[in-house]
Model the fold of this input.
Amino acid sequence: MDLSDRSAIVTGANQGLGKAIAAEFVKAGAGVLLTARNEELLSQVQDELRPLAHRARPVEIMRADVSDPESCRAVVARAKEVLPDLAVLVNNAGVYGPKGAIDDVDWGEWVQAVQINLFGTVLMCRAIIPLLRRKGYGKIVNLSGGGATAPLPRVSAYAASKAAVVRMTDTLAEELKDAHVDVNAIAPGALNTRLLDEVLEAGPEKVGKQFYERSLKQQKEGGAPLEKGAKLAVFLASAESDGITGRLLSAVWDDWQKLPSRREQLGKSDVYTLRRIVPEDRGMKW
Done:
């Protein structure tokens, strides 16, 4: 897939999946502005990726906090300066937040997780949408996860915020259809990143025995490859995915590579969306 005709902002790009997405974008020819709160790690990523850039395409970095509206506006303003063909936003920055029963966890930490995961995604979208509207084209890729599609006891801030990101994604997709801006969400799979380390460090008392044991198994088996989520992000940022919008796609389980041939059928369905299940959907005549 070719991204040589466009550039992207990637948030939370200093490690883990964000770093992997940034690398795949650079290898596909995109110019990038990478953001995160840890500038030292960002600088290391920049040094690693610049030798991979096509025809000296820009690999720029900027320290930013997506939960702060002014910081988000500053990121987009900077991107306009260094990325003349800016057309893509990848909202990857996210945290698990506090772990434990909802009536036991620190309320300030719960709110902060929502501010980063949900408000940070919305704020970055608000900052870049005027530019994409003027362009009459663009791509927004939001990172969701398993917390959006199933209950996640004892990690409630993460689950609630990621489900909200999916609903915001398909709502925004409708708002931006006339501007030819595609908005999609990615479930990257169970990744062995710092978030997994946090779960294991918290222990079964806080995250629950079942989730803890599942996380231990994931650690031993290696988890989902970061590259799968990163390659799906490239696809959703590319012209190949034009017209595919308002979907939550699993990097691991969905056959997203074949979606271009199913574009028309997909557009007429609610496949890859979050919807209410009624008794008839399960063969029950209530």
